[in-house]
Design a protein that fits this description.
This protein is an alpha+beta fold and 590 residues long. The protein contains 15 helices and 22 strands. A hairpin with a 7-residue loop joins strand 7 (184-186) and strand 8. Helix 4 packs antiparallel against helix 6, helix 9 (338-349) packs across helix 11 (402-419) and helix 12 (497-506) runs antiparallel to helix 13. The protein binds one RNA strand of 77 nucleotides through strand 1, strand 2 and helix 2.
Length: 590
RNA sequence: GGGGUCGUAGUUCAGUUGGUUAGAACGCCUGCCUGUCACGCAGGAGGUCGCCGGUUCGAGUCCGGUCGGCCCCGCCA
């Protein structure tokens, strides 16, 4: 670069800078070579400036400019001038001016890029990941990373003002039972022993509370060796926090403050607080899931009692066997075609529904439906009343056990909203889901497992049920849901050893196993653990929603493919035999 | 572990019922062009139709397998 020093970025210049001598550096986005005058759109992280090579002004740099191609890296020195009348580009922030180049330095050439960097051209994701450093030059992707940075800055400022300490916890730690599959790291120094990468810093942040740190947070990588999805990566980032001497309301206030500061910084939006709340039981009843998208209606309505003794054998049998019949009234959807209905039936089959009964309510109130004939007029009236069925409505029914009914209808509800384009992308509906059950029965393991995690405090008044009806014990856990995506969750923790012992017992974790795996936690609880609790947000999911993307890969600089590989580095990869023997590993493959 | 979907030029895609030499746009290369901004004009190069096998006189097209991308179920306290 010689003595050249960048004076401005490619987004800085405007009418205020006219006649100034400036130096810009960046990448060649496009060149328009007229034989005489040559225009180059110069791009950097901040924006685009048009630079002009005019043979009459400086024939030497103009001569040099002919070789410039896409993505060459250059520095130019020249004078800012107002563009001629009628030549202003209103699509560009710097469109009022251009830089007449006196001196061109070619800092680096570039091969022809393997894919165009134009924003509007879709490129296969595999290729984008293989050349991620080119993909990230595209303004949309760069903006996502910039926005992520702003979000982190905003929440750091907010939490700092709220007296939080940012403290790091170990990445090499020990595997604990329960939860997701661990990523393991063999120990060289301790033959046959392994570290595990943390699924979350859960126990360490609790120990920081015992340590008297009072308020902790961390923007931290977590690792779970499970299959990937559009919103799940094997390594992901949590905004993790924990507080002492607090109750649920304190957490809600802090979390709402974090979200408010974050949305102000990234979207310039003022969120309404406090966020609405809904109990887990209500969410399951009305939406069939614990993370309802409240941007549209189509709530689930129970017909179990209405059809208990009805003439339709399928419904009656399901109810007799202890199952449920629930319905969605798709308002105004009676115009759905037979194919629409077949598609939706096939769709809910993915979630276990053996069928999808439907009724079209015609203009005269009559039912057009394959199942209409099985119901008496009175039964039809009772159903119509319960469902508030009006002419033009389309009623869907699923009859099965509770799990199938709610998951099928919850997914049907979302699919209907997508098909009918009911979802407003500019709406951000937050929702606290509260009063989760503490435990749920796992028929495979033939024992109860923790709905949240084993350190979640039970609701005081339900404690007596721990030994008698563990499935009915409510927990002091809460999730934060945004537009139907779980973006965070947490709980008040158990801070007394006796309570922790009782919960371990309810989880069928033997005292010896608890002592082996959690001795350090149990000991800490006996050494002055304060009441405490916390919450963790999924930063990737949050940024995905804020950026309006469909996958968290678009807000992660270097994400993995669905097979958990990295096309850029070709990780994971084999290692030398010697590395394995040092780690006391003797593989039986190869 | 399972279901779905895609794979053709550097990129994004088209490719009829299985039939001659596999096309388009953009990009790339050469030349021309002094006010463009997705500059324009003329010409040119560029293909193991993911891979393997099968059916057939003949396969980008049909069949089987396999590899890879994506979406989903299971899984993810």
């Amino acid at each position: 670069m010689g003595e050249l020093k960048r004076s401005h970025t490619c987004n800085d210049l405007g009418a205020d800078h006219i006649d100034q001598e400036v130096t810009l550096m960046g990448w060649v986005l496009r060149r328009r070579d007229h034989g005489g005058v040559i225009f180059i759109d110069l791009r950097d992280r901040w924006g685009i400036s048009q630079i002009v090579f005019n043979p009459e002004l400086n024939s030497q740099s103009h001569g040099k400019a002919h070789v410039l191609r896409s993505e060459w890296v250059i520095a130019v020195r020249g004078k800012v001038t107002r563009r001629p009348d009628g030549m202003v580009n209103t699509n560009l922030k710097t469109g009022e001016i251009e830089v007449m180049v006196n001196e061109l330095r070619i800092l680096n050439s570039s091969l022809t890029p393997p894919f165009p960097l134009d924003e509007d051209i879709e490129v296969s994701e595999n290729l984008r990941l293989q050349y991620r450093y080119l993909d990230l030059r595209r303004p949309g992707m760069a903006d996502n990373l910039i926005m992520r940075h702003k979000a982190c800055q905003a929440l750091r400022t907010f939490l700092n003002d709220e007296n939080f300490l940012e403290i790091e916890t170990p990445v090499l730690t020990r595997s604990t039972p329960e939860g997701a599959r661990d990523y393991l790291v063999p120990s060289r120094v301790n033959a046959g022993k392994f570290y595990a990468l943390p699924q979350s810093p859960q126990l360490f942040k609790q120990l920081l509370m015992v340590a008297g740190m009072d308020r902790y947070y961390q923007i931290v990588k977590c690792f779970r060796d499970e299959d990937l999805r559009a919103d799940r990566q094997p390594e992901f980032t949590q905004v993790d926090m924990e507080l002492s001497f607090i109750v649920e309301e304190d957490i809600y206030r802090i979390a709402e403050g974090v979200m408010t500061s974050l949305f102000a910084a990234t979207k310039g939006l003022a969120l309404q607080t406090p966020f609405p709340r809904m109990t887990y039981a209500d969410a399951m009843e009305r939406y069939g899931c614990d993370k309802p998208d409240t941007r549209f209606g189509f709530e689930l309505i129970s017909l179990t009692e209405v059809v208990r003794n009805c003439g339709f054998q399928v419904f009656r049998t399901v109810v007799e066997k202890g199952g449920q019949v629930k319905s969605i009234n798709a308002k105004g959807c009676a115009s759905f075609s037979r194919k629409d209905l077949d598609d939706l039936t096939a769709y809910v089959a993915n979630f276990g529904a053996k069928g999808l009964a439907w009724v079209k309510v015609k203009e005269d109130g009559e039912w057009q439906s394959p199942i209409a004939k099985f119901f008496t007029a009175d039964e039809r009236t009772a159903m119509a009343t319960t469902l508030d069925a009006q002419p033009g409505d389309l009623l869907f029914f699923v009859a099965d056990n509770a799990v199938v009914v709610r998951s099928a209808l919850a997914e049907l509800r979302l699919e209907l909203a997508r098909r009918l384009k009911l979802i407003d992308k500019k709406t951000f509906n937050f929702l606290w889901v509260t009063d989760f059950p503490l435990l749920e029965y796992d028929p495979e393991q033939k024992r109860h497992t923790a709905v949240h995690h084993p350190f979640t405090a039970p609701v005081e008044e339900d404690m007596a049920l721990l030994e008698t009806e563990p499935g009915r014990v409510r927990s002091r856990a809460y999730d934060l849901v945004l537009n139907g995506t779980e973006i965070g969750g947490g709980s008040l923790r158990i801070h007394q050893k006796e309570v922790q012992d009782r919960v371990f017992a309810a989880l069928s974790i033997a005292p010896e196993e608890a002592a082996d795996k959690f001795a350090f936690l149990l000991k800490a609880l006996e050494l002055g653990a304060p009441p405490h609790g916390g919450i963790a947000f999924g930063l990737d999911r949050l940024m995905m929603i804020i950026a309006g993307r469909d996958t968290i890969r678009d807000v992660i600089a270097f994400p993995k493919t669905q097979k958990a590989t990295c096309p850029l580095t070709d990780a994971p990869a084999g290692v030398a035999r010697k590395q394995l023997t040092e780690l006391h590993l003797r593989p039986d493959w190869q």
